[in-house]
Amino acid sequence: MEKQTPDNLPRRRFLREGLWTGALAALGAACAVLLAKGRRQKYVWQIDPLKCIGCGNCATHCVLNESAVKCVHAYAMCGYCDLCTGYFIPEPKELTTAAENQLCPTGAIIRTFVEDPYFEYTIDEPLCVGCGKCVVGCNAFGNGSLFLQVRHDRCVNCNECAIAVACPSQAFKRVPIETPYIMKDA
Amino acid sequence: MKKRIGKIQSGVLTGLVLAVAIGAGVAAFLLFDTSGTKSTLPPEYKYEIEQYAKIDPALIIYEQVGDPIETDFDTACAITLDDAGNMVIAGDSKLVKYDLAGKPLNEIELPKEPTCIEFDLDGNLIVGMSNVIMILDPQGNTVQEWSAPTAVSLQTSIAADKDHVFAADALNKLVWCYDREGNVVNKLGAKDPDRNIPGIVIPSAYFDIATYPDGLLRVVNPGRHWIEAYTTDGDREWYWGRAGVDIEGFSGCCNPVALAVLPDGGFVTAEKGLVRVKVYDADGEFVGVVAGPDQLGWIEPLRVCKTPEECKAKGFDVAVDKAGRIYVLDTLRNVVRIFERNKSAAARAAR
Protein backbone atom coordinates (compact mmCIF):
# COMPACT_ATOMS: atom_id res chain seq x y z
CA MET A 1 0.00 0.00 0.00
CA GLU A 2 1.19 3.40 -0.85
CA LYS A 3 2.31 5.36 2.20
CA GLN A 4 0.47 8.67 2.54
CA THR A 5 2.45 11.79 3.24
CA PRO A 6 1.35 15.43 3.21
CA ASP A 7 2.81 15.62 -0.23
CA ASN A 8 0.69 12.90 -1.68
CA LEU A 9 -2.76 13.19 0.03
CA PRO A 10 -5.63 12.23 -2.23
CA ARG A 11 -7.29 15.33 -3.60
CA ARG A 12 -10.80 14.37 -2.30
CA ARG A 13 -9.56 13.81 1.24
CA PHE A 14 -7.54 16.99 1.10
CA LEU A 15 -10.63 18.96 0.08
CA ARG A 16 -12.83 17.29 2.75
CA GLU A 17 -10.40 17.94 5.57
CA GLY A 18 -9.73 21.43 4.27
CA LEU A 19 -13.45 22.23 4.25
CA TRP A 20 -13.88 20.88 7.79
CA THR A 21 -10.95 22.92 9.02
CA GLY A 22 -12.28 26.03 7.32
CA ALA A 23 -15.80 25.51 8.69
CA LEU A 24 -14.48 25.01 12.21
CA ALA A 25 -12.29 28.10 11.93
CA ALA A 26 -15.24 30.15 10.66
CA LEU A 27 -17.42 28.86 13.49
CA GLY A 28 -14.71 29.75 16.01
CA ALA A 29 -14.32 33.19 14.54
CA ALA A 30 -18.08 33.76 14.61
CA CYS A 31 -18.22 32.68 18.26
CA ALA A 32 -15.32 35.00 19.09
CA VAL A 33 -17.01 37.91 17.33
CA LEU A 34 -20.31 37.24 19.11
CA LEU A 35 -18.53 36.84 22.43
CA ALA A 36 -16.60 40.07 21.95
CA LYS A 37 -19.74 41.89 20.86
CA GLY A 38 -21.60 40.56 23.87
CA ARG A 39 -18.80 41.65 26.15
CA ARG A 40 -18.81 45.14 24.65
CA GLN A 41 -22.53 45.50 25.16
CA LYS A 42 -22.22 44.77 28.85
CA TYR A 43 -20.80 48.24 29.36
CA VAL A 44 -22.23 51.61 28.42
CA TRP A 45 -21.00 55.17 28.61
CA GLN A 46 -21.98 57.34 31.54
CA ILE A 47 -20.99 60.66 33.16
CA ASP A 48 -19.62 60.70 36.69
CA PRO A 49 -21.54 63.67 38.13
CA LEU A 50 -18.83 64.31 40.71
CA LYS A 51 -16.26 64.87 37.97
CA CYS A 52 -18.45 66.75 35.50
CA ILE A 53 -17.62 70.45 35.24
CA GLY A 54 -20.54 71.40 33.00
CA CYS A 55 -18.24 72.57 30.19
CA GLY A 56 -20.88 72.32 27.45
CA ASN A 57 -19.08 69.74 25.30
CA CYS A 58 -21.89 67.23 25.79
CA ALA A 59 -24.15 69.49 23.76
CA THR A 60 -21.77 69.85 20.85
CA HIS A 61 -19.70 66.68 20.55
CA CYS A 62 -22.26 63.87 20.53
CA VAL A 63 -22.54 62.08 17.17
CA LEU A 64 -26.30 62.44 17.42
CA ASN A 65 -27.83 65.62 16.10
CA GLU A 66 -29.56 66.06 19.45
CA SER A 67 -27.15 64.99 22.17
CA ALA A 68 -27.83 61.79 24.12
CA VAL A 69 -26.82 63.73 27.25
CA LYS A 70 -29.64 65.36 29.18
CA CYS A 71 -29.98 67.06 32.53
CA VAL A 72 -31.58 64.98 35.28
CA HIS A 73 -32.77 66.03 38.71
CA ALA A 74 -32.14 64.32 42.05
CA TYR A 75 -35.23 65.53 43.87
CA ALA A 76 -34.05 64.20 47.22
CA MET A 77 -31.13 66.64 47.09
CA CYS A 78 -33.09 69.64 45.90
CA GLY A 79 -33.84 72.53 48.24
CA TYR A 80 -37.00 73.45 46.26
CA CYS A 81 -35.75 77.04 46.46
CA ASP A 82 -37.72 80.04 45.33
CA LEU A 83 -34.44 81.54 44.12
CA CYS A 84 -33.13 78.47 42.29
CA THR A 85 -29.68 79.16 40.87
CA GLY A 86 -30.13 76.42 38.30
CA TYR A 87 -33.29 78.07 37.01
CA PHE A 88 -32.63 81.81 37.34
CA ILE A 89 -29.89 83.96 35.86
CA PRO A 90 -27.47 85.40 38.46
CA GLU A 91 -29.36 88.71 38.62
CA PRO A 92 -33.00 88.04 37.76
CA LYS A 93 -35.28 91.05 37.52
CA GLU A 94 -37.87 89.13 39.49
CA LEU A 95 -38.44 85.53 40.50
CA THR A 96 -40.96 84.69 37.80
CA THR A 97 -41.03 82.31 34.86
CA ALA A 98 -40.49 85.16 32.38
CA ALA A 99 -37.95 84.09 29.76
CA GLU A 100 -35.66 87.02 30.61
CA ASN A 101 -35.16 85.61 34.11
CA GLN A 102 -34.46 82.03 33.07
CA LEU A 103 -30.96 80.62 32.91
CA CYS A 104 -31.74 77.77 30.51
CA PRO A 105 -31.35 79.05 26.93
CA THR A 106 -33.93 76.57 25.66
CA GLY A 107 -36.42 76.93 28.51
CA ALA A 108 -36.08 73.25 29.39
CA ILE A 109 -36.71 73.61 33.12
CA ILE A 110 -40.28 73.81 34.37
CA ARG A 111 -40.91 75.68 37.65
CA THR A 112 -44.00 74.63 39.58
CA PHE A 113 -45.27 76.18 42.82
CA VAL A 114 -45.55 73.68 45.67
CA GLU A 115 -46.25 75.78 48.77
CA ASP A 116 -44.83 79.04 50.07
CA PRO A 117 -41.89 79.44 49.54
CA TYR A 118 -41.11 76.16 47.77
CA PHE A 119 -41.00 75.37 44.05
CA GLU A 120 -40.37 72.15 42.17
CA TYR A 121 -38.15 72.06 39.11
CA THR A 122 -38.51 69.40 36.40
CA ILE A 123 -36.61 68.89 33.17
CA ASP A 124 -38.48 69.05 29.87
CA GLU A 125 -36.20 66.49 28.21
CA PRO A 126 -37.10 67.11 24.57
CA LEU A 127 -35.99 70.73 25.05
CA CYS A 128 -32.79 69.95 26.98
CA VAL A 129 -29.64 70.04 24.83
CA GLY A 130 -27.28 68.91 27.60
CA CYS A 131 -25.28 72.14 27.74
CA GLY A 132 -24.94 71.93 31.54
CA LYS A 133 -25.53 75.61 32.20
CA CYS A 134 -28.10 74.84 34.89
CA VAL A 135 -25.77 72.19 36.32
CA VAL A 136 -23.07 74.78 36.92
CA GLY A 137 -25.53 77.20 38.53
CA CYS A 138 -26.98 74.52 40.80
CA ASN A 139 -23.60 73.12 41.82
CA ALA A 140 -21.92 76.46 42.38
CA PHE A 141 -24.59 77.89 44.65
CA GLY A 142 -27.08 75.18 45.49
CA ASN A 143 -27.14 71.55 46.47
CA GLY A 144 -26.00 70.17 43.12
CA SER A 145 -29.22 68.29 42.51
CA LEU A 146 -29.16 69.04 38.76
CA PHE A 147 -26.60 66.96 36.85
CA LEU A 148 -25.95 65.50 33.42
CA GLN A 149 -26.43 61.87 32.42
CA VAL A 150 -26.17 59.94 29.16
CA ARG A 151 -29.73 58.82 28.38
CA HIS A 152 -29.57 55.24 27.14
CA ASP A 153 -32.85 55.46 25.30
CA ARG A 154 -30.94 57.76 22.94
CA CYS A 155 -27.24 56.81 23.21
CA VAL A 156 -25.94 54.56 20.41
CA ASN A 157 -23.04 53.47 22.63
CA CYS A 158 -20.20 54.22 20.24
CA ASN A 159 -17.03 52.26 20.78
CA GLU A 160 -15.19 55.56 21.08
CA CYS A 161 -17.62 58.11 22.50
CA ALA A 162 -16.99 61.47 20.85
CA ILE A 163 -18.00 63.36 24.00
CA ALA A 164 -15.71 61.23 26.16
CA VAL A 165 -12.80 62.15 23.89
CA ALA A 166 -13.66 65.84 24.25
CA CYS A 167 -14.42 65.74 27.99
CA PRO A 168 -11.85 67.94 29.77
CA SER A 169 -12.48 66.44 33.21
CA GLN A 170 -12.45 62.74 32.29
CA ALA A 171 -15.98 62.45 33.63
CA PHE A 172 -17.02 59.87 31.03
CA LYS A 173 -16.57 56.24 31.91
CA ARG A 174 -17.86 52.77 31.05
CA VAL A 175 -20.38 51.38 33.52
CA PRO A 176 -22.09 47.96 33.58
CA ILE A 177 -25.27 47.92 31.58
CA GLU A 178 -27.11 46.60 34.64
CA THR A 179 -26.43 49.93 36.41
CA PRO A 180 -26.33 52.36 33.51
CA TYR A 181 -26.85 55.57 35.51
CA ILE A 182 -24.69 57.22 38.20
CA MET A 183 -27.16 58.92 40.45
CA LYS A 184 -26.40 61.54 43.05
CA ASP A 185 -27.86 61.03 46.48
CA ALA A 186 -28.44 63.30 49.43
CA MET B 1 42.93 63.64 9.89
CA LYS B 2 42.04 66.77 8.08
CA LYS B 3 38.36 67.67 8.20
CA ARG B 4 36.61 68.60 4.99
CA ILE B 5 35.13 72.10 5.03
CA GLY B 6 31.45 72.31 3.99
CA LYS B 7 30.55 68.75 4.96
CA ILE B 8 28.32 68.38 8.04
CA GLN B 9 29.32 65.65 10.42
CA SER B 10 26.68 62.99 11.15
CA GLY B 11 26.85 63.72 14.92
CA VAL B 12 26.09 67.38 14.39
CA LEU B 13 23.22 66.48 12.06
CA THR B 14 21.73 64.09 14.64
CA GLY B 15 22.05 66.76 17.32
CA LEU B 16 20.25 69.28 15.15
CA VAL B 17 17.41 66.87 14.39
CA LEU B 18 17.06 66.04 18.08
CA ALA B 19 17.05 69.72 19.07
CA VAL B 20 14.35 70.52 16.50
CA ALA B 21 12.26 67.55 17.69
CA ILE B 22 12.57 68.56 21.35
CA GLY B 23 11.78 72.18 20.48
CA ALA B 24 8.70 71.14 18.52
CA GLY B 25 7.55 68.96 21.42
CA VAL B 26 7.94 71.76 23.95
CA ALA B 27 6.16 74.20 21.65
CA ALA B 28 3.28 71.76 21.14
CA PHE B 29 3.00 71.25 24.91
CA LEU B 30 2.92 74.98 25.56
CA LEU B 31 0.76 76.04 22.67
CA PHE B 32 -1.90 73.37 22.49
CA ASP B 33 -4.57 72.73 25.07
CA THR B 34 -4.25 69.14 26.17
CA SER B 35 -6.98 69.38 28.77
CA GLY B 36 -9.69 68.45 26.30
CA THR B 37 -11.55 70.05 23.47
CA LYS B 38 -12.95 73.46 24.26
CA SER B 39 -16.66 74.01 23.96
CA THR B 40 -17.92 75.63 20.80
CA LEU B 41 -21.21 76.61 22.38
CA PRO B 42 -22.42 80.17 21.83
CA PRO B 43 -22.20 82.50 24.84
CA GLU B 44 -25.86 82.15 25.85
CA TYR B 45 -25.20 78.50 26.70
CA LYS B 46 -22.39 79.30 29.13
CA TYR B 47 -22.66 80.30 32.75
CA GLU B 48 -20.81 83.60 33.04
CA ILE B 49 -20.39 84.90 36.56
CA GLU B 50 -16.67 85.61 36.74
CA GLN B 51 -17.49 89.33 36.88
CA TYR B 52 -19.14 88.84 40.28
CA ALA B 53 -16.17 86.92 41.65
CA LYS B 54 -13.98 89.97 41.07
CA ILE B 55 -14.17 92.32 44.03
CA ASP B 56 -13.27 95.99 43.86
CA PRO B 57 -10.02 96.23 45.90
CA ALA B 58 -11.32 99.43 47.51
CA LEU B 59 -14.09 97.41 49.15
CA ILE B 60 -11.66 94.99 50.79
CA ILE B 61 -11.06 96.50 54.22
CA TYR B 62 -9.35 93.55 55.92
CA GLU B 63 -6.05 91.82 55.27
CA GLN B 64 -4.78 88.39 56.15
CA VAL B 65 -2.40 88.08 59.09
CA GLY B 66 0.32 85.50 58.53
CA ASP B 67 -0.07 82.26 56.65
CA PRO B 68 -3.11 80.01 56.84
CA ILE B 69 -2.99 77.82 59.95
CA GLU B 70 -3.09 74.13 59.10
CA THR B 71 -5.16 71.84 61.29
CA ASP B 72 -4.90 68.07 61.42
CA PHE B 73 -8.61 67.55 60.82
CA ASP B 74 -9.98 65.45 58.01
CA THR B 75 -13.28 67.32 58.25
CA ALA B 76 -13.37 70.44 60.38
CA CYS B 77 -16.82 71.98 60.81
CA ALA B 78 -16.81 74.79 63.36
CA ILE B 79 -14.52 77.29 65.09
CA THR B 80 -14.87 79.36 68.24
CA LEU B 81 -12.48 81.33 70.46
CA ASP B 82 -11.93 81.26 74.21
CA ASP B 83 -11.34 84.31 76.39
CA ALA B 84 -7.57 84.00 75.97
CA GLY B 85 -7.91 84.11 72.20
CA ASN B 86 -7.15 80.44 71.62
CA MET B 87 -9.01 78.72 68.81
CA VAL B 88 -11.16 75.68 69.45
CA ILE B 89 -11.99 73.73 66.32
CA ALA B 90 -14.57 70.95 66.08
CA GLY B 91 -14.51 68.20 63.52
CA ASP B 92 -14.00 64.48 62.95
CA SER B 93 -14.90 63.17 66.46
CA LYS B 94 -12.91 65.61 68.53
CA LEU B 95 -12.29 69.15 69.68
CA VAL B 96 -8.81 70.62 69.44
CA LYS B 97 -7.60 73.81 71.07
CA TYR B 98 -4.88 75.72 69.19
CA ASP B 99 -2.89 78.76 70.20
CA LEU B 100 -2.60 81.71 67.86
CA ALA B 101 0.45 80.22 66.19
CA GLY B 102 -1.53 77.11 65.34
CA LYS B 103 0.13 74.89 67.94
CA PRO B 104 -2.30 72.27 69.34
CA LEU B 105 -2.72 72.75 73.10
CA ASN B 106 -5.13 69.97 74.00
CA GLU B 107 -7.65 67.62 72.46
CA ILE B 108 -10.98 66.21 73.63
CA GLU B 109 -12.41 63.05 72.11
CA LEU B 110 -16.17 63.07 71.53
CA PRO B 111 -18.59 60.13 71.28
CA LYS B 112 -19.58 61.17 67.77
CA GLU B 113 -18.99 63.84 65.16
CA PRO B 114 -19.62 67.37 66.38
CA THR B 115 -21.59 69.78 64.24
CA CYS B 116 -21.23 73.04 66.17
CA ILE B 117 -19.50 74.59 69.22
CA GLU B 118 -19.69 77.75 71.29
CA PHE B 119 -18.46 79.01 74.66
CA ASP B 120 -20.99 80.12 77.24
CA LEU B 121 -20.46 83.08 79.56
CA ASP B 122 -18.89 80.83 82.24
CA GLY B 123 -16.20 79.55 79.89
CA ASN B 124 -17.85 76.16 79.42
CA LEU B 125 -17.83 74.73 75.94
CA ILE B 126 -21.20 73.76 74.45
CA VAL B 127 -20.96 71.11 71.76
CA GLY B 128 -23.73 70.13 69.37
CA MET B 129 -23.65 66.65 67.80
CA SER B 130 -26.57 66.20 65.36
CA ASN B 131 -29.23 65.60 68.05
CA VAL B 132 -27.18 65.75 71.27
CA ILE B 133 -25.93 68.73 73.25
CA MET B 134 -23.04 68.46 75.70
CA ILE B 135 -21.70 71.13 78.03
CA LEU B 136 -18.05 70.62 78.93
CA ASP B 137 -16.18 72.48 81.67
CA PRO B 138 -12.77 74.04 80.85
CA GLN B 139 -11.10 70.75 81.83
CA GLY B 140 -13.21 68.85 79.33
CA ASN B 141 -15.48 67.16 81.87
CA THR B 142 -19.13 66.75 80.95
CA VAL B 143 -21.30 69.10 83.00
CA GLN B 144 -24.61 68.54 81.22
CA GLU B 145 -25.83 66.41 78.35
CA TRP B 146 -29.23 66.13 76.72
CA SER B 147 -30.88 65.13 73.47
CA ALA B 148 -33.07 67.21 71.17
CA PRO B 149 -36.79 66.69 71.82
CA THR B 150 -37.43 65.24 68.35
CA ALA B 151 -36.28 61.84 67.13
CA VAL B 152 -34.59 63.37 64.10
CA SER B 153 -32.61 66.54 64.46
CA LEU B 154 -29.55 68.25 62.97
CA GLN B 155 -28.09 70.96 65.15
CA THR B 156 -25.96 73.23 63.02
CA SER B 157 -25.30 76.06 65.46
CA ILE B 158 -25.22 76.67 69.21
CA ALA B 159 -25.41 79.88 71.22
CA ALA B 160 -25.91 80.67 74.89
CA ASP B 161 -26.82 83.59 77.12
CA LYS B 162 -26.86 83.67 80.93
CA ASP B 163 -30.00 81.55 81.28
CA HIS B 164 -30.47 79.76 77.97
CA VAL B 165 -28.87 77.51 75.43
CA PHE B 166 -30.08 77.99 71.86
CA ALA B 167 -29.69 75.24 69.26
CA ALA B 168 -30.40 75.82 65.56
CA ASP B 169 -32.03 72.68 64.16
CA ALA B 170 -31.72 72.55 60.36
CA LEU B 171 -33.97 69.53 59.96
CA ASN B 172 -36.86 70.93 61.99
CA LYS B 173 -36.25 74.47 60.70
CA LEU B 174 -36.39 76.16 64.09
CA VAL B 175 -34.26 77.17 67.06
CA TRP B 176 -34.72 75.25 70.30
CA CYS B 177 -34.47 77.46 73.36
CA TYR B 178 -33.40 75.39 76.38
CA ASP B 179 -32.82 76.32 79.99
CA ARG B 180 -29.42 75.40 81.43
CA GLU B 181 -30.69 71.94 82.41
CA GLY B 182 -31.78 71.10 78.88
CA ASN B 183 -35.52 71.64 79.24
CA VAL B 184 -37.21 73.17 76.22
CA VAL B 185 -38.39 76.66 77.12
CA ASN B 186 -39.45 77.81 73.67
CA LYS B 187 -39.23 77.28 69.92
CA LEU B 188 -38.03 80.17 67.78
CA GLY B 189 -38.56 80.73 64.07
CA ALA B 190 -41.19 78.08 63.35
CA LYS B 191 -43.75 79.24 60.79
CA ASP B 192 -46.58 81.06 62.55
CA PRO B 193 -48.69 83.47 60.46
CA ASP B 194 -50.54 84.66 63.58
CA ARG B 195 -47.26 86.01 64.96
CA ASN B 196 -46.05 87.25 61.56
CA ILE B 197 -43.31 84.62 61.44
CA PRO B 198 -42.87 83.39 57.85
CA GLY B 199 -40.70 80.46 58.87
CA ILE B 200 -37.10 79.47 58.37
CA VAL B 201 -36.13 78.16 54.91
CA ILE B 202 -33.10 75.89 54.87
CA PRO B 203 -32.30 74.44 51.44
CA SER B 204 -28.94 73.02 52.57
CA ALA B 205 -27.64 72.13 56.02
CA TYR B 206 -26.40 75.60 56.96
CA PHE B 207 -28.32 77.41 59.67
CA ASP B 208 -26.41 79.73 62.00
CA ILE B 209 -27.36 81.75 65.07
CA ALA B 210 -25.56 84.20 67.37
CA THR B 211 -26.35 85.97 70.62
CA TYR B 212 -26.19 89.76 70.58
CA PRO B 213 -25.57 92.34 73.33
CA ASP B 214 -29.15 93.66 73.07
CA GLY B 215 -30.43 90.29 74.30
CA LEU B 216 -32.10 89.33 71.03
CA LEU B 217 -30.95 86.21 69.25
CA ARG B 218 -29.80 86.71 65.67
CA VAL B 219 -31.00 83.88 63.45
CA VAL B 220 -29.91 83.40 59.86
CA ASN B 221 -32.79 82.55 57.55
CA PRO B 222 -30.62 81.34 54.65
CA GLY B 223 -33.35 80.49 52.13
CA ARG B 224 -34.76 84.00 52.49
CA HIS B 225 -31.31 85.64 52.76
CA TRP B 226 -32.24 87.35 56.02
CA ILE B 227 -30.78 87.78 59.48
CA GLU B 228 -33.72 87.86 61.89
CA ALA B 229 -33.85 89.06 65.50
CA TYR B 230 -35.89 87.01 67.99
CA THR B 231 -36.72 87.43 71.63
CA THR B 232 -36.43 84.37 73.85
CA ASP B 233 -40.24 84.35 73.89
CA GLY B 234 -40.18 83.64 70.17
CA ASP B 235 -41.27 87.04 68.88
CA ARG B 236 -39.68 88.09 65.62
CA GLU B 237 -38.68 91.72 66.00
CA TRP B 238 -37.10 92.64 62.67
CA TYR B 239 -34.83 91.37 59.96
CA TRP B 240 -32.29 92.64 57.49
CA GLY B 241 -30.55 91.28 54.41
CA ARG B 242 -31.49 90.63 50.82
CA ALA B 243 -30.69 88.23 48.01
CA GLY B 244 -28.25 89.43 45.38
CA VAL B 245 -25.10 88.38 43.66
CA ASP B 246 -23.84 91.95 43.94
CA ILE B 247 -21.42 92.62 46.77
CA GLU B 248 -24.02 93.95 49.19
CA GLY B 249 -26.44 91.05 48.77
CA PHE B 250 -26.27 87.42 49.77
CA SER B 251 -25.69 85.30 46.69
CA GLY B 252 -27.12 81.97 45.61
CA CYS B 253 -30.05 80.01 46.92
CA CYS B 254 -29.12 80.03 50.60
CA ASN B 255 -26.75 82.41 52.27
CA PRO B 256 -25.16 83.46 54.54
CA VAL B 257 -23.95 80.16 55.93
CA ALA B 258 -22.17 81.62 58.95
CA LEU B 259 -22.59 84.63 61.21
CA ALA B 260 -20.48 86.21 63.96
CA VAL B 261 -20.78 89.43 65.95
CA LEU B 262 -18.00 92.04 66.06
CA PRO B 263 -17.08 93.92 69.26
CA ASP B 264 -18.65 97.11 67.80
CA GLY B 265 -21.97 95.34 67.20
CA GLY B 266 -21.39 94.75 63.50
CA PHE B 267 -21.82 91.39 61.83
CA VAL B 268 -19.46 89.13 59.93
CA THR B 269 -21.10 86.88 57.35
CA ALA B 270 -19.71 84.03 55.25
CA GLU B 271 -21.27 82.87 51.98
CA LYS B 272 -20.87 79.62 50.11
CA GLY B 273 -20.88 79.23 46.35
CA LEU B 274 -19.43 82.62 45.53
CA VAL B 275 -17.26 82.46 48.63
CA ARG B 276 -17.22 85.83 50.36
CA VAL B 277 -16.72 86.99 53.92
CA LYS B 278 -18.21 90.44 54.50
CA VAL B 279 -18.92 92.90 57.28
CA TYR B 280 -22.23 94.68 57.96
CA ASP B 281 -22.94 97.24 60.65
CA ALA B 282 -25.39 96.74 63.52
CA ASP B 283 -28.29 97.89 61.30
CA GLY B 284 -27.37 95.54 58.49
CA GLU B 285 -25.76 98.14 56.24
CA PHE B 286 -22.87 96.82 54.16
CA VAL B 287 -19.50 97.99 55.49
CA GLY B 288 -16.90 96.14 53.44
CA VAL B 289 -15.33 92.87 52.39
CA VAL B 290 -13.07 90.76 54.55
CA ALA B 291 -12.13 88.33 51.82
CA GLY B 292 -13.41 87.12 48.46
CA PRO B 293 -12.61 84.05 46.38
CA ASP B 294 -9.06 85.23 45.65
CA GLN B 295 -8.22 86.01 49.28
CA LEU B 296 -9.71 82.69 50.44
CA GLY B 297 -7.73 80.72 47.89
CA TRP B 298 -10.70 79.75 45.77
CA ILE B 299 -9.39 80.72 42.37
CA GLU B 300 -12.16 78.85 40.58
CA PRO B 301 -15.18 79.90 42.59
CA LEU B 302 -17.73 78.40 40.23
CA ARG B 303 -16.32 75.01 39.42
CA VAL B 304 -18.45 71.98 39.99
CA CYS B 305 -17.14 70.13 43.02
CA LYS B 306 -14.44 67.59 42.29
CA THR B 307 -14.82 65.19 45.19
CA PRO B 308 -17.79 64.07 47.30
CA GLU B 309 -16.21 65.80 50.29
CA GLU B 310 -15.90 69.01 48.34
CA CYS B 311 -19.56 68.80 47.30
CA LYS B 312 -20.68 68.48 50.89
CA ALA B 313 -18.32 70.98 52.52
CA LYS B 314 -18.56 74.26 50.75
CA GLY B 315 -19.45 76.55 53.61
CA PHE B 316 -16.98 78.34 55.85
CA ASP B 317 -17.32 79.14 59.54
CA VAL B 318 -16.32 82.45 61.10
CA ALA B 319 -15.40 83.63 64.58
CA VAL B 320 -14.34 86.99 66.02
CA ASP B 321 -11.93 87.76 68.86
CA LYS B 322 -12.11 90.63 71.33
CA ALA B 323 -9.83 92.78 69.17
CA GLY B 324 -12.17 92.40 66.20
CA ARG B 325 -9.94 90.03 64.27
CA ILE B 326 -11.87 87.62 62.08
CA TYR B 327 -11.06 83.91 61.97
CA VAL B 328 -12.25 82.08 58.87
CA LEU B 329 -12.31 78.28 58.98
CA ASP B 330 -12.11 76.75 55.51
CA THR B 331 -14.01 73.51 56.09
CA LEU B 332 -12.81 71.98 52.85
CA ARG B 333 -9.08 72.56 53.23
CA ASN B 334 -9.27 72.48 57.04
CA VAL B 335 -7.21 75.64 57.46
CA VAL B 336 -7.82 78.85 59.40
CA ARG B 337 -7.14 82.26 57.99
CA ILE B 338 -6.99 85.26 60.31
CA PHE B 339 -7.91 88.71 59.04
CA GLU B 340 -7.60 92.11 60.67
CA ARG B 341 -8.79 95.53 59.57
CA ASN B 342 -6.20 96.99 57.24
CA LYS B 343 -4.64 100.18 58.47
CA SER B 344 -5.66 102.43 55.59
CA ALA B 345 -9.29 101.34 55.88
CA ALA B 346 -9.18 101.80 59.65
CA ALA B 347 -7.76 105.30 59.19
CA ARG B 348 -10.47 106.16 56.65
CA ALA B 349 -13.11 104.91 59.06
CA ALA B 350 -11.63 106.98 61.89
CA ARG B 351 -11.91 110.14 59.75
How is this structure best described in words?
The complex is a heterodimer of chains A (186) and B (351). Chain A has 186 residues and is an alpha+beta fold. Chain A has helices spanning 11-40, 57-61, 133-141, 162-166; strands at residues 43-47, 69-73, 109-115, 118-123, 146-150, 172-176. In chain A, the strands form three sheets. A two-stranded antiparallel ribbon of chain A has the order 1-6. Chain A has a two-stranded antiparallel sheet with strand order 2-5. The radius of gyration of chain A is 27 Å and the shape is rod-shaped. Chain B is mostly beta strands and 351 residues long. Chain B has a single domain, classed as Neuraminidase, CATH 2.120.10. In chain B, 11% of the residues lie in helices and 36% in strands. In chain B, strands 1-24-23-22 form a four-stranded antiparallel beta sheet. In chain B, a hairpin with a 4-residue loop joins strand 15 (217-221) and strand 16. Chain A binds chain B through residues 50-57, 59-61, 79-85, 90-91, 103, 105, 116-117, 129, 131, 133, 135-137, 139-144, 165-169, and chain B through 35-41, 44-47, 49, 52, 198, 201-204, 223-225, 243-246, 251-254, 272-274, 301-308, 311.
